[in-house]
Description:
The chain is an alpha/beta fold. Helices cover 35% and strands 23% of the residues.
Amino acid sequence: MLLEIEDLHVHYKSYWYVQKVLNGVWLRMSEGERVGIIGETGSGKTTLLKSVLKILPQNSLIPRGTIKYKDVDILKSGEATLASIRRKEIGMIFQDPMAALNPVFKVKDQLHDVIKYKLLSEGHNPSKEEIRGHALRALDDVKLPDHDRVLESYPFQLSGGMRQRVMIAMALISAGKLLLADEPTTNIDVTIQDQILRLIDRLVKERGLSAILVSHALGMVRQMTDRSYVLYAGDVMEEASTDELFNHPMHPYTSLLISSAPKISTRDIGEGIRGKLPDYRSPPQGCRFAPRCPYAMEKCYTVKPKRTIVNSAHIVACHLYE
Ligand code: SF4
């Protein structure tokens, strides 16, 4: 296994209350696999990805759970091990490049730093010329022209699409093995979202990387991943090979999510899913989807559903299948 997450609980505490966001998440992936995570905004997808790199905000708590990357226990590892993993093994593309890139440094300074620390962590002290060479190749890889202008720009001087390409270039430098892509097209003009996703898809394939893609674009998750997880309110609802998940969804939430996705082949607008995500300060005791589920039974409100293994490629957490 490349990555194995088991029973992961993540809470956010404030002075007044605790928000219980992740509620026992599991995820497994092998080397070379491409995994999709789908679910509504606020389901804990970003928290899950940040947990893998242990870059959660300071007010977070992990009361239970394990994250194993190869044979490293991420949650018990010290800063030196984590820094090495972040520099040369796992890279992350963040949702909002404007927030992820430092606004007071030029692209050149930020890109050069990532390259320098990656090479240092590999035991090589690079010269300025070498770093620049790597930076130019990184910009070429993400099809960014006009290198000098890009490198000399501050993030706000670039368009949203260019910023995201810079972000992808930086993430790929660190992603020797695994790329985490968190809603990589959320803040980008709709006309270039497709280009960005295809760029990520091509680079992942060319480099033989493993990848986790979190996206609202269900069509892209369907095209780009081998296996998918459905996350709702901090719980994994269903896991299956991507083809099986989209062709034969079993969990009521997955079925509703897929049927709510807008389709250009019809004039109908999906009805969406009634209700909203629960309040993480006092989430439902049993199935977190129960208040919105058309099939909810009495048991669903008090007992958390267990994982039911349907077949070797399909797991569902719902009382209907126990
Ligand atoms: Fe619906 Fe119950 Fe299944 Fe939850 S466990 S999805 S409430 S049927």
